[in-house]
Amino acid sequence: MNRQIRTIDCHYMRTGIAASYLVHEDGEGYFVEANTCHALPHLLKALEAEGVGRDRVRWIAITHAHLDHAGGAFALLDACPQAMVLAHPRAARHLIDPEKLVSSAKKVYGERAFAELYGDIRPIPADRVRIVEDGEEIPFHGGVLRCIYTRGHANHHFCLVDPVLDGIFTGDSFGLAYPVLQRNGLFIFPSTSPTDFDPDAALNTLDKIANAGVRRVFLTHFGELMEIDAARGQLREILEFSGMLYGEAVSGTDGFDPLASRFDAELKKLFEKVALRAGLILTPDDWELLATDLRLNAEGIAFAGIRARG
């Protein structure tokens, strides 16, 4: 097989958190994920190391418009003059006009933290964005890449199947498995962060990915995974529990803050049980790493449940 894949650590927050992928064959390549503009030097260094010219990059696939996946798309596109961005139609409009995403993120993080995390974000010209449809086949090096819509984490999420690699790039729709937490076996958990969490859609997406007909999964957070059935089992357990919490939020009367705080504590207990079953005793450093994901997951469930009250 001449097709090669390189996992690129984007050094987002710390090492081993967020990846971009460079796939290439006979000098022609494509990226999956762009991370933030701070990651650009790492992406360009990968091109150089793999011997792929910037003008030979054909596609930049952005699984969804969250800024740790898409914030640096404009910078990578500027560096690769022949490339086109592949995006879900709902994500494309945010790439072309990122003002709403940027404004929302600045309210959450504040100006200073936003700059440190994401740096500059600029619009992408509409004529350099290719909107992909569910099931659409994208040409690459004499073959095709297949797009699959995958709701649950975000309504504007898609995954990309590369049959030659026998793999699928899953963005945030098939969980997060940080390398530092894989000490004694697989420990993976879903992302239910705001604002589009849908427990039923997320469970359906697990099955879509597991039944995509490939044996390799490439997670943005983080790296290659081949234990697909085991991963689906862990993810399903946590998603079903998250769905139960979502139901409590829908039927209850509590406000956002008390719900998010309670869900954070309950998710932490479940994470500990799932980790122990996988042979992993979570240390204080591990909990520090997981703290942001736990908070965001709890907030996403609370937000979605309250919104569903109508």
Indicate the overall shape: globular
Task: Estimate the helix proportion, in percent.
Answer: 40-55%
Question: Helical region count?
Answer: 10
Low-confidence stretches: none
Strand order of the largest sheet: 1-2-3-4-5-6
Q: What string, H for helix and E for strand, traces the elements in order? A: EEEHEHHEHHHEEEEEHEEHHH
Written description of the protein model:
The chain has 310 residues and is of the alpha/beta class. It folds into two domains: 1-87 and 89-131, Ribonuclease Z/Hydroxyacylglutathione hydrolase-like (Metallo-beta-lactamase, Chain A); 135-310, Metallo-beta-lactamase, Chain A (4-Layer Sandwich), CATH 3.60.15. It has helices spanning 40-50, 67-70, 73-79, 89-96, 99-109, 111-118, 199-210, 228-251, 256-277, 284-308, and strands at 4-9, 19-25, 28-32, 57-61, 84-87, 129-131, 137-140, 143-149, 158-162, 167-169, 216-219, 223-225. The strands form two sheets. Strands 1-2-3-4-5-6 form a six-stranded mixed sheet. A six-stranded mixed sheet has the order 7-8-9-10-11-12. Helix 7 links the parallel strand 10 (167-169) and strand 11 (216-219). Helix 5 crosses helix 6 and helix 9 crosses helix 10 (284-308). The N and C termini lie far apart (53 Å).
